[in-house]
Amino acid sequence: MFSRAAWARILPFLVYIFFIIAVDVLARLGIELQALRWMYALKIGAVLATLAWFWRDYTELHSWDLGLTATAVALVTGVLVLVLWVSLDASWMVIGAPDGFNPTTGGRIDWLMVAVRIAGAALVVPVMEELFWRSFLMRWIDSDSFHLLDPAQISLKSVVIGVVLFGFEHNLWLAGMVAGAAYSLLYMKQRSLWSSILAHAVTNGLLGVWIVRTGNWTYW
């Protein structure tokens, strides 16, 4: 059904989802969430290994193709998305009651756990998610030969579907849609996946710093 190019972008995402489901199942079986916190490190390690296995298939990432202006736009976009992310938190904008990721033990922060969490969220997750949502899904909706489709030619239908699905992947569904729209427009405008990856990385990295400073663990 899918080509190697497609599977290279799908499998890292599926690995990530597998660990989310596994943690949920283990929690339902009675294992304390505190005992499952290091599953995040295993998840990131597994995703990173999958990305490394398929690296030769990610031709759009083999060279940095952003100029100074495009890089600056991506950085600013990432910051703006962060501001909106922590603001769009009214009750009707949230799905479920997220447990979040609390790196504290006995009231003290485990800084190694924080470092792994922020590094994973800022360096691995953006690559994995942008490869799936932007590089694959949005273009695949328009064409089976998605890897040949110029990002600037992605249809409005594909953008809307991708943004909505990306939004509902997150507990903060509206914030997720805003982020998805911002990253999608960057990808289409700059015609570079590095643009959306960079913005996504800035958002996730700064969000991690904000969470640690404020103690709002549910945002993780």
From TrEMBL:
What GO biological process terms are annotated to this protein in UniProt? proteolysis
Give the InterPro entries listed for this entry: Prenyl_protease-related (IPR014346), Rce1/LyrA-like_dom (IPR003675)
Task: Check the record and name the Pfam families matching this protein.
Answer: Rce1-like
Molecular function as annotated in GO: peptidase activity
User: The CAAX prenyl protease 2/Lysostaphin resistance protein A-like domain covers which part of the protein?
Assistant: 114-205
Locate the transmembrane regions by residue number.
6-26, 38-55, 67-88, 109-128, 159-186, 193-212
Q: What keywords sit in the KW lines? A: Hydrolase, Membrane, Protease, Transmembrane, Transmembrane helix
Q: Which NCBIfam families match?
A: pepcterm_CAAX
In its UniProt entry, what is this protein called?
CAAX prenyl protease-related protein
Q: Which organism does this record belong to?
A: Massilia violaceinigra
